[in-house]
Every structure is written in structure tokens, then in C-alpha cells.
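User: I'm preparing a small set of examples for a lab meeting where we compare how different chains pack in three dimensions. I only have the primary sequence for this one, and I'd like the structure in C-alpha cell form so I can line it up with the others. Please keep the answer compact; I'll paste it straight into my notes.
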Amino acid sequence: MLSNYRLLSCNGNELTLEELNKLFEFYNMMSGSLNSRFIYRGESDRNLMRQFNVDTKTPEMLSEFLFMTGEKGRICWADNEGINPDDVSTENFLRICTSLAKYIDEGLRVGGNRAKRIKAFCEKEEKFYDGINNGKTFVGVYEKLKPEEKRKANLYYLAIVHTIGDKEYREISEYISTTTNAGIANRFAHDAFIFGWVPHNLWKRKARKRTIDIVDTNQMTEMQSTGLPYCDSAVFPNQEEIAIRCGLLPHFIIGYAVGEDFYVNPTIFNAIDRMHEMTTFREKCNYKRRIQLHGLEINQENFEDFCKRTNFKKYFTFDGDDYEMHWM
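Assistant: Understood. Below is the C-alpha cell output for the 328-residue chain.
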């Protein structure tokens, strides 16, 4: 993948041989991992400008923002709170079900290819569609679930709302769309192509500390154990979408491409330097797994002051247990 680009530092200089070797080592460390998988995101100058007031025409400035804040879900641009998946009250569950049913129905009426795909989804997933339209009948099931199972259900349903792409919800969505298919991302890469990774199989690793919330829209069958309505496939299965809650953190960004140039996240070099300083095999293995599951170590000192240079109205923090939104 990276062999197709001219590899550059964040300030636009070609990588030195030492930096190139570190990037190669990092890439090999991540490739084929059971703990993580590569994801891609195509982006436009218009969307970048709305977030950062800079775009790919000034890549050195864009690097400064992407490698400090990452990309944020539009909830960070919105004036309201949106729908919080951590709210496991019955009222919030019903609100999510009602919203999902509403946006599916509206998607069916818009016409065009999008409506055809949503219709095909509803026909294939008739049991799921009927269940969502009758959310009140599943209140008893929902209320018997553990809080973490309720939260997981909220996350999955809201990810489907996000995938449907309704204009109203898109402006307040907590999610950002990525894909495991580089070819799909390239179709959306009007001006930039972002390359990163996400943790893998986290729901199946209950003993591990929670990391970022992601939803693989092609793996909804994990909902089966809850007893709530679930679907076997995504609304747009060919997009191979991974929806990331709140945004693509810089901790999980390898770099981004503009044309034939690829700008590398400088924190990767720091990570390899730290690994080289470790003296035991166990240390190196644990550190590698920590990066794969929890991302790079980014110095975000004075982060709120930095965010004030963007167009974000709020930002979020995640401490390994809770997500929290902060207004600026």
C-alpha cells in the first residue's frame, strides 16, 4: 500500500533512511495483527476546511491538525447534544429505535440508488425492520440486559442510523465512517486519503480494558445474544464500513495521502524509538499490543487551546471507561 507513494515527514521533507526503516518496522508490526486491522477514509477539502480552516493545499498545516486532533464526528461541530449511546435508560433506547425507523422510512422515500439499497436491506432484513418499528415490544428484553449490553445495542443501532446517511442525522452523528477496503475509500478520496487502524474483536475479549468504540456494520450478528432485533448484513455491505465513535483519533492514524505524497504521523517514529529502548521480549510484546489496541502516545498538552484554532464547538475525552463531551 505505502509503496505506491512518496513518503514524507509531516513538514513535507522526504523520509530519511532511519525514518523509512522505522515506518517499515511499524507497518510490519501492525500488518496481519489479530489485535487490530487497517482502515481507510477518503476525504474532501471542503470537509477538512469546515473542521480546520486548512485543507490539502497546505499539507504541512493540515498535518499539524490531523496529527493532533484527528478527524471528529459532526457531533463535535453541532450545537446540540445528539443521542448519547451511553445513556442506557429505556427512554433513550426507545428514542434510538424511533429515530432508526424514521430514518429508514425517509431513506425509502428519497428515490435513486440510495433508496433502492435501503429497500433491498429492508426486504432482506424484514424481521429486523419489523422489530425496530415495534421497539416498545422489546422494552422488557432491553431492561433485563446488563448496562454494557445495553450500551452495545445503542451503539449498533446508532451506527445503522449513521450508515443510512440521512441528512438530518448526519449533521449530529457521533460517528465517522471508515472502511477496511482501500478501493472503496479511494472512491470517496476527493482530495485526501487517510490510513490508520482500529482495535479488532474487542467484544470477544471481555477481560481486556475497554478501548475506543467501533462498529463493524457487516458484523451485526454479535447482537444476537441480546435478544434484541439484529441484522445479518449492512445497509451497504460492499462498503465494508467501520463506524468509529466520535472521530478518528490521531492515536490511530498512520498518515494521509495527497496525490502521490504520503505524510507520516511523526509519533510513529517515537513509538519505535521507545520500543528499541526496551530490554525484554515481554516488554516489547506488551507495548506492541498496547499500541494495537489503544493507539499511539500523543502529546496533547494544551489540547483545548489547540482546538480553539479549529471550527469544533466541542471535543471529547475517553479515559478507558467513559466518553465525555466538553463544550468550548
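A couple of notes for your slides: The two ends are 38 Å apart (CA to CA). The chain has a mean pLDDT of 93.

User: Perfect, thanks.
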